[in-house]
Amino acid sequence: LMNAAVAQGVEPAHITQHCDSVSLCFSKGLGAPAGAVLAGRRAFVAEAWRVRKLLGGGMRQAGVLAAAARIGLEQAEATLRRDHDNARRFAQARTSPGVQALNSLLCSASLEAVETNIVMVEVKGGWPSPAELCARMQAVSEEELAETGHAVSVLLFPWSAHTVRAVWHWNVSAHDTELALNKLSFVARKCQE
After folding, report:
1. Other CB atoms closer than 10 Å to residue 129's CB: what's the count?
2. Cα 101 to Cα 189: distance, rounded to the nearest angstrom
3. Where is the Aromatic amino acid beta-eliminating lyase/threonine aldolase domain (predicted)?
């Protein structure tokens, strides 16, 4: 919700105005350690509250988490916009080559499809599979360290038979994005060899 609101330049209420209920997680993009909020009709929220207590949910000292959530909400626009910029940087060149500029037979990404903090990378050909590419991006080899001077482990998700999903959050910097691009370039080159 917050990523969509920032990307569209609207308030979250504009997006949710026709919804019966809304749940917003404060971790992930907003950077709080935990927590979520649920909004809806009074009876719906009351039933959710009852079920949460029935299942043992609840927490003491929740004010500490609420403070972290509040800071995340106050900084959401700047933080999420930075995540969106990093995702776009990954998909296309700015100061260094993005996935598009790798000119690789292994993978490609559509800059037009990058609307928020998510980049879908198409894995071309039959090898490596998205799962194999993810494993190679996560692993660090002696050869990589010797060649690039960095030991970088990148977590990606094999989304489909031909697609890998990359997602940015508050803890991934522009420098981390550049390191991930360098890692992808290294992995693509090694796969082509």
Report:
1. 15
2. 13
3. 1-123
Q: What is the pLDDT of residues 68-119, one digit of tens each?
A: 999 999 999 999 999 999 999 998 844 445 565 555 667 888 888 999 999 9
Enclosing H/E stretch for 24: strand 21-25
Place of tokens 């989304």: 159
Hey, is 152 helix, strand or coil? coil
**What is the full DSSP assignment across 107-129?**
EEE-GGG--SSEEEEEEPSSSS-
Identify whether the C-beta of residue 148 lies closer than 8 Å to the C-beta of residue 63.
no
Considering the entire predicted model, what is its pTM? 0.84
90-to-22, 100, 128, 150, 170 alpha-carbon distances in Å: 31, 9, 20, 18, 15
Alpha helix ranges (H) inside 41-120: 42-54, 62-74, 76-91
Angle at 159 between CA 10 and CA 27, to 5 degrees: 45
- Alpha carbon dihedral 140, 141, 145, 146, in 10-degree steps, equals -170
Going by the DSSP 8-state scheme, the letter that residue 17 receives in this structure is: T
Instruction: Catalogue all structural domains in the chain, each as residue range(s) with its CATH number.
Output: 1-84 (no CATH), 98-191 (3.90.1150.10)
Residue 136 DSSP symbol? H
